[in-house]
């Protein structure tokens, strides 16, 4: 199992091209695991989990 790589929604957007609003919707719908918030109030996600979700959607 991969070690979680926790990033905020903007860093996740930069790494994957997925819009931060889409990532927040997936968090709210339970498609991604929520890992709290950073000091700026942005949601934190596991970048590896997001990449796996994107790979599943592409397949």
Short description:
By secondary structure, this protein is mainly α. The protein has helices at residues 9-16, 20-28, 47-58, and strands at 6-8, 44-46.
Largest sheet: 2 strands, antiparallel
Number of strands: 2
Give the low-pLDDT segments.
Answer: none
Residues in helix, %? 40-55%
Q: What overall geometry do the principal axes of the alpha carbons give?
A: globular
The total count of helices amounts to 3
**CA-atom Rg in angstroms:** 11 Å
Q: What is the element string, with H for helices and E for strands?
A: EHHEH
Cα distance spanning the termini = 21 Å
- The total domain count is 1
Structural class designation = mainly alpha
Strand content: 5-15%
Secondary-structure topology with pairs:
Elements: E1 6-8, H1 9-16, H2 20-28, E2 44-46, H3 47-58
Antiparallel strand pairs: 1-2
What does it look like?
Helix content is 49%, strand content 10%. It contains 3 helices and 2 strands, in the order E-H-H-E-H. The chain has a two-stranded antiparallel ribbon. Helix 1 packs across helix 2. This is MerR family transcriptional regulator. It comes from Streptomyces laurentii.
Q: What would the keywords be for this entry?
A:
single chain, 59 residues, mainly alpha, two-stranded antiparallel ribbon, 3 helices, 2 strands, MerR family transcriptional regulator
